[in-house]
Specification:
It is a single chain. The chain is of the alpha+beta class and about 230 residues long. The chain has two domains: about 70 residues, no CATH class; about 130 residues, no CATH class. Helices cover about 50% and strands about 30% of the residues. The chain is built from four helices and seven strands. Helix 1 runs antiparallel to helix 2 and helix 2 packs across helix 3. The longest helix has about 55 residues. It is elongated.
Length: about 230
């Protein structure tokens, strides 16, 4: 607690109390700032003290603006590095999407991440059964000094996988996988897509066989049975 007493020209006095709260160095700087200028109000004429206070406030504002700009630049630098890391894998994933029949796959390709959905079209509607969001791995800090970024790069690549079950009882499940290299990441996604597309083709072949069988007259089915 800081108590400062100022005597006015008529002999009247006023008392100002400032309570210091323990915290970060940023908070300590603000406390020292208040302490310094409360002393100035006592030791110098009021007009001069107010002018000095305005100058110090402007310095604080400019300092905060600079820290915000530094944080934004660090975020931009992080995004640039992520895009550069992701470029080779993005090329592989673009080729993968182009190799699969469009009625089974849907994608959203950005510079720093790719989202792929596998499913089947039902008219104009695409019903997804699996979804992958693929991007360079990263971490998030819970706290950071003023001007620092909360996100940072981690080695490898992250695949966030979502399975859709389309049932009221069990709607979705979500998993996060990490891989060290572009090749391992692409191989995992390719294997998952190949398995799912094979399953779709099997279901469609069953449907086609049953449809063909229902077209066959009953006497031909009896003859085949003999």
């Amino acid at each position: 607690m800081l108590d400062i007493t100022r005597k006015g020209g008529s002999g009247a006095t006023s008392r100002v109390s400032v309570r210091a709260v323990k915290g970060s160095s940023h908070t300590t700087d603000k406390i020292l700032f208040v302490r310094r200028h409360m002393q100035a109000l006592v030791q110098t004429p009021l007009k001069e003290a107010i002018i000095s206070l305005k100058e110090e406030i402007e310095k604080l504002i400019q300092s905060e603006q600079q820290k915000t700009e530094e944080r934004d630049q660090k975020h931009a630098d992080h995004r640039d590095r992520q895009r550069n890391r992701f470029r080779p894998l993005r090329t592989l994933l673009e080729e993968l999407v182009a190799a699969v029949e469009p009625n089974y796959i849907k994608s959203h390709i950005l510079n720093d991440r790719v989202t792929i959905e596998i499913g089947r079209k039902e008219g104009d509607y695409f019903s997804a059964d699996k979804r992958w969001e693929i991007q360079p791995d990263y971490g998030v800090r819970l706290t950071a000094e003023k001007g620092d970024s909360l996100v940072y790069e981690k080695p490898g690549f992250r695949v966030e996988e979502t399975n859709y079950y389309h049932t009221p009882e069990f709607d979705v499940s979500e998993y996060t996988h990490t891989f060290e290299t572009e090749q391992e990441t692409a191989q995992y996604v390719i294997k998952q897509i190949a398995e799912q597309v094979a399953h779709y083709r099997y279901l469609e072949s069953l449907t086609a066989r049953y449809a063909e069988r229902n077209k066959t007259p009953n006497h031909e089915l009896e003859e085949d049975a003999l």
